């Protein structure tokens, strides 16, 4: 390919040539150069005035000593001070009287929702529905409560937890493993399982369910009630409805009778302050089934 002739009025070139194409050595626009120089100057000034250069265990602090972290800490402290007025009010109000104060209840529910999402949703689900049916994590949206659904009951449960070894006041009960420990024969287990299926309105073997009445009365009624309605004093769930903590199918019920369950909930006394516990109690209480 022939190299094009250079015109006499063309600017100087850089001397580079690609396939006969040469690069003009045009100067950068003066305004662009001044902006570039100003940016360099600004960066040097910024390095001097503000934190800029990372070090081994921190960063240069700058002449002004500015800290975005300190600003956030101040904002958090201001928010905490503003909220403390409401927390003090929450602590000085009887649990049963919180719902009668619309402003206080609104604050408690919103504050409790934040606590719930951070501390409780991992087990009970973000929507407090217990993650899924039969998971062993109680659904907090209904009106079935193993340990009671009053504000005082809920706050006590959150404070000390259930069946943990950290707090002497933790809620505690333990169902026997009727099959594993051979407290009932396989035939008796068949009978009591069908009786539970019957009182919960499910398909069952009528003859086995009838025989299971006596087995249930002798072994289960002391905790679950003669009619299977449960007892919040000992944390025994109702068996005569369609709400199940570990599943309500025949196989699930048989597994519960054979091996029992021993769900544990931590106490939150060491994680939350008393006002936060009251707030999360108010949040859970208003979800749909507070007594």
UniProtKB/TrEMBL annotation:
Pathway: Energy metabolism; oxidative phosphorylation. It holds the Pfam family Cytochrom_C. Keywords: Cell inner membrane, Cell membrane, Electron transport, Heme, Hydrogen ion transport, Ion transport, Iron, Membrane, Metal-binding, Oxidoreductase, Repeat, Respiratory chain, Transmembrane, Transmembrane helix, Transport. Residues 107-200, 207-288 form the Cytochrome c domain. The chain crosses the membrane at residues 31-49. InterPro entries: CcoP_N, CcoP_N_sf, Cyt_c-like_dom, Cyt_c-like_dom_sf, Cyt_C_IC, Cyt_c_oxidase_cbb3_su3, Cytochrome_c_Oxidase_Subunit. The keyword Metal-binding applies. It is found in: Cell inner membrane. It comes from the Bacteria. Binds 2 heme C groups per subunit. Its cofactor is heme c. C-type cytochrome. Part of the cbb3-type cytochrome c oxidase complex. Belongs to the CcoP / FixP family. Component of the cbb3-type cytochrome c oxidase. This is Cbb3-type cytochrome c oxidase subunit. It comes from Pararhodobacter zhoushanensis.
